[in-house]
Amino acid sequence: PLLPPAARPSTAFARRLSPSLPALHAAFLVPTARQPPPAVRHAAARLLLRAAAASDAALASLLPALEHAQRVDAAAGCGWGVDPSEALRRGHVGLVNQGATCYMNATLQVLFLVPAFRDGILAAEPAPRAERSPILAEVQATFAFLRDGLARSYDPLPLVTASEALPLTFAATQQNDAAEFLALLSDNLEEALRGSRHASLLRSCFGGTLVQQVVWEEPPPTPGGAPVRKVSEREQSFLQIELDLKGHRSIEESFRALVDGERLEGDNAYELDSGGKVAAVKRLCLGELPPTLVIQLKRFEFDYEKMVNVKLNSECSFPMRLDCSPFTRRGLECAARGEPLPPSPPYELAGVVVHAGSSGGGHYFSYACPRDGPTAGKWFAFNDTKVTRFDEARLPQQCYGGGAAAAARTAAERASASQSGFLLLYRRVESSRHRRIGSAPPVGIGAAGWRGAPAAATRPPAAAPADGPTSQTGEAGREAARGASSMLLRAGSEGVVLRPAGSEAVVPRSPPTPSKFSMLQRAFLDSGADGGSGSAKGREGEEGAGGVAAGSAQARAQAGGGPPAGEGRAPLATTRVRAANEALLRREHLLDRGYAAFVRALLTLPPPTSAAPLPPPPPLAPLSAPTQPAAAESESASALRTRLLEFGARYAFSHLLRLNDARLEPVLAGLDGWLATLARACGAQPAAAAAVLHYVVAPQAAVGGSGAAGRGVAAPPSSPLLDAVLCSGSAAGRSAVADLVVSLARVAHGAEAVEPRHGAEGEPRRGGHMAAFFDALLRHGVGRAVHSWRDAAPFWELLRGLLSSGGAPPPPMGG
């Protein structure tokens, strides 16, 4: 109904459309950028199928695009039992632990949620003629993936490698002190930004001043007068403040101990410039306060009696809102004069880096509350790759340490007795209204489904859950999603336009040409190029994310966000994120059930009237996969069908069979048996059956595993068939593979029985293809089965099925 011209394409029309089929496939079936609405994707799939059925030229044009998408994604590697939708982010992105880099992950997550720092890092450039710091570049890349990436987690291995340049106590891959890492990272970033327009970034975000004061009183200038109060001061800057824990049960007590100071009297009295000595008080107080206050609780110290490092896990509470005015220079002056404290903006808790364990080892993770974006005001737990919602009411139990943990009643609470807060981040309330979108993927990127409902979440929630605040950005994102999902493709007197139902055109098109083909081509290609932005699926994930929407740039600007910070400023980082997003979306689309149905429908195209004879079999050793013809246009109809069916086999073994049971079984059963369809299609084309058999046993890179490989012994060569029967965890998948191979072997063996081939000496040699197939299967399969003997039963069942089906080759001549 959307595209009447595509309903019954004639052969001539299909030929004219054939040059555009690869672009249609890339734009609508395997898109890696803007997502078209599901109805348009359905229409594109129908058009591609009917064009391929109507003209061999159209099939020859489409087939390279199918092979390219499958080959590019297969080269990236794919595990077994996967669910690609689980790899897509549902909210905030986690970080992969390299073994003992939790200190780095926990610190980076809380830093990322400081909007001014995140946006400044992403927009930062080194000074002119200055060499780009590898640490700065990798921090930019990490932040770019946390903000714009579509993957649920990011692997910061390049940043860990670059951090070896930091003078950490231990290697970067070993556990280090999170506060030490933060201090060294800050120094490195400041040095990298020196001389650039972002040179003051860290000072403007975290920098404040501590004032060291010496206070004493001098005799009154007149008899009976009041003593004269004197103050000597010296300022020093800071990026984080260290607070002692011994003898203090809260950070307010620790701050009070700083400003109370120590008495200088007797032999330790303060010496004046005149040479005299007076009793005085030496203390520290806060001078200039930063927008984000970083506090380190000194939980690690050296025990000089035992000569070991120890961890102080004594209880130290910290408030959700902190008033620093009594501990500032101005506040102390007012108190000395007996005046009321001046009003000052309070701080609210924004993040806690937690250490669980002892001084000899443990684990870091963090709790943080985003201050911007759709999840603002909601607390999350960032534990490496796992990001979950967190109830801030549990902060005392999880972070105070000491008595709060010791009083725990459950086993889990007792196990966390050594868990306590280590780094605290407080944000000034007046600076918390940052309206840029924070952790959000790029605008217009999503993975739309085939069944009217999108298939993948591509942005953090555009609306907070019902029990929380709703940001202006979230409202705009929902409006954009509703607009995108109501897009209708209309061909009117003004040309083909994308028009929201009941509204004016939002993407005007150029005037149409009289050609029906030109108007149809513009309807597809133009909407994919800059107009078709589909909706993205709303999920309720473990992160507590609500609805998810992919809004337009205009909606984002209206929401106060503007373009993504750092766009064009960190091109290497954004390029890496874009490539990763494209690869993730490509895999999501290739593993989508709708795309599987599309490929299966291609396999059911009617075979040519005359089947091609069997080609000469490949040599017995070494066996290699058949090479593809160089020019698709010169292929015959039977060769095209053979190539199409071999592509179907490659797609099945490199993608479909790697799905988990929940997604694989409906594909194998619900679509009338995907592999059964491939077997039936090959049944009418023996050449295709032989080509598929050679592909499934062709050697490829060995699959790593336990056992001998884990002890340094090289694993035997593998093949797609061996991987499927030995690595797949799906019983239904292994059974379908066995049925497919047995069916193909029966077809190829039967064809060779009536069409014998000749050996090298001119003697008849029956079973050339099957001999090559069994030679490779036994030569590599037996060694692989012994290597994976615990899971080798499916391989022996496959051999038994082949031998009992009549598809085994006869014994060699003379033996």
Topology of this structure?
Blueprint lengths: L10 H7 L3 H9 L8 H17 L1 H20 L8 H4 L6 E2 L6 H11 L2 H9 L10 H15 L4 E2 L2 H6 L15 H16 L7 H6 L1 E11 L9 E11 L2 E3 L7 H10 L1 E3 L5 E2 L5 E2 L1 E7 L5 E6 L2 E4 L4 E4 L9 E2 L6 H9 L9 E12 L2 E8 L11 E4 L2 E4 L5 H5 L3 H4 L4 H5 L3 E10 L43 H14 L1 E6 L2 E6 L15 H16 L21 H6 L12 H20 L2 H11 L33 H18 L6 H10 L3 H10 L2 H11 L23 H8 L3 H24 L2 E2 L5 E2 L2 H20 L5 H12 L11
Give an overview of the whole structure.
By secondary structure, this protein is α+β, with helices and mostly antiparallel strands. Helix content is 41%, strand content 14%. Strands 5, 10, 13, 14, 15, 16, 17 and 18 form an eight-stranded mixed β-sheet that branches. The radius of gyration is 34 Å and the shape is elongated.
Summed up, what is this model?
With 815 residues, this protein is of the alpha+beta class.
Annotation keywords:
alpha+beta; 815 residues; 4-stranded antiparallel β-sheet; disordered C terminus; elongated
Helix content: 40-55%
Number of helices: 29
> Which structural class should the secondary elements be placed in?
alpha+beta
Distance between termini?
A: 65 Å
Q: What low-confidence regions span 5 or more consecutive residues with pLDDT below 50?
A: 431-448, 451-569, 620-633, 702-713, 757-767, 811-815
Q: How is the main sheet built?
A: 8 strands, mixed
Annotation, overall tally of beta strands: 22
- Average the pLDDT over all residues and give the rounded result: 74
Strand content: 5-15%
